[in-house]
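Entry, Tuesday afternoon. Goal for today is a structural model of the target with 2-acetamido-2-deoxy-beta-D-glucopyranose bound, before we commit to ordering more compound. Inputs were pasted exactly as handed over by J.K., no edits. I checked the ligand SMILES twice against the vendor sheet because last time a stereocentre got dropped in transcription.
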Amino acid sequence: MISGRFLLLLFGLVGSIRCDDVENSHVDISRRAIRPNPLNGHWIDTWASMPQLTEPANLPPAPFNQTGAVFVNSTIRQTLHMSVGANQIRLKISNAFGVTNLPITAVSIALPANDTAGIHQIQAKTVQKVTFSGQDSISIPNGALAVSDPLDFKIKAQSILTVTIYVKDGQTTNSITSHPGSRTTSWWQFGNAADASALTITDSSTQSAAHWYFVSAVEAWVPPSSGSLVLIGDSITDGRGSDPNQNNRWPDLLLARLQQSPATRHIAIANLAAGGNRVLADGLGPNALARIDRDVLAHPGVKYALLFEGVNDIGTADPSRAAQDALYASLTQAYRQIVTRIHAAGIPVFGATITPFSAPANFTAQPYSHPERERTRVRVNAFIKEAGVFDAVVDFASMLADESVPSQLGSEWDSGDYLHPGVRGYQRLADLFPVGVFGAWEGGVGGWV
Ligand SMILES: *[C@@H]1O[C@H](CO)[C@@H](O)[C@H](O)[C@H]1NC(C)=O
Ligand SMILES: *[C@@H]1O[C@H](CO)[C@@H](O)[C@H](O)[C@H]1NC(C)=O
Ligand SMILES: *[C@@H]1O[C@H](CO)[C@@H](O)[C@H](O)[C@H]1NC(C)=O
Ligand SMILES: *[C@@H]1O[C@H](CO)[C@@H](O)[C@H](O)[C@H]1NC(C)=O
């Protein structure tokens, strides 16, 4: 049995703010370098991206990529689109897929010049050093995650944050963690330029790419009523068809709408989607069933989850009736599994219907297009809408379907490939999103669910 005195000693040693009465809590908090504001707040993602094993073609260009090492003696500068504002933030760096240690030498954050995404210039007076449990450096073991110390750094909702990482020794492998579908330009140079107001760019073809490396989440310290909406999705949520450096993916446009209303302004969006991702099979990123532990359940402050995925399962399965029937059975079972597991954390799960992907007969560049796959899409959407598995339904399919040919995207919403919406289509998803679901599920899910 552990005595009360021992517990007291233990709490004293770790500097916990857990106290028997509120009166005493200021004593413990004052030991911290930073005073949480608000005092009763919690951490949530104000930004996140899905960590993936980087495909060879998505590694940085040479000479920042060598055989057996990446980013040796390199400073990497990246810009991230915050969702909610906060007075304090902290950073997470992921080595989830790296097969060697990721030895981070120095990290800083700043606001970018002109508050603009995708550039390497910063507002020099805003630079702040980022530390990890009091140290400037941290060696993140393979498979692991690092969280920074809290930073007194005010961010506004929908603003851009610049994160700069210097890796003196690089990572000695070509298997590293990234999020290729950033749709945002990142920059690098040799040497330590963590605090530089601009990187030294002599060749943008080798010193930049539209990928994010290592950055995994920015957490915001927010009031207890604030929480995040986590999106589990594929390229349509990752923003294929949106504009580079414009942050006009449908989740960004939904965020802009949520920010306009006091009823939804406290909801952050964590976009855990990746192009090509599937529910049932690995490929571009791990299958959704495998990754929800890391990408949903391990994130703090998740208040809602939305599942909008399955098109790549349907589209890559053989178009025979038997294969599609088997896929339907497995996919709907997987939806049930995912919802059951997320419900165990008290989090409601919304289901989005799969948007049309058929193309007219004279357009052959849409490989998913097939009548048997369309039949599966219709059946899966009926399941999402009618089986009662999801806590609410977000009917993206009906928002984007062509009125006369519902198996196809409406031409005004299509990016041109009959699969990914363009920005007008993404705006429509944001405009028609049933935002009442947030109030309806404010209290989470409980009981036998
Ligand atoms: C990076 O180097 C690895 C190992 O030599 C190679 O397989 C990969 O294609 C390279 N990628 C780029 C983008 O240069
Ligand atoms: C910031 O905006 C000003 C005014 O439009 C422009 O002249 C300048 O080049 C911009 N700076 C960067 C780094 O983009
Ligand atoms: C790192 O790069 C800088 C800038 O090119 C260079 O001056 C320095 O010598 C390099 N350091 C090492 C250890 O290679
Ligand atoms: C396909 O046919 C439609 C209707 O006849 C036409 O408007 C369109 O331009 C054609 N597309 C291609 C790729 O040939």
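The pocket of 2-acetamido-2-deoxy-beta-D-glucopyranose (ligand 1) is lined by residues 56-57, 59, 61-62, 65, 67, 174 (CB under 6 Å).
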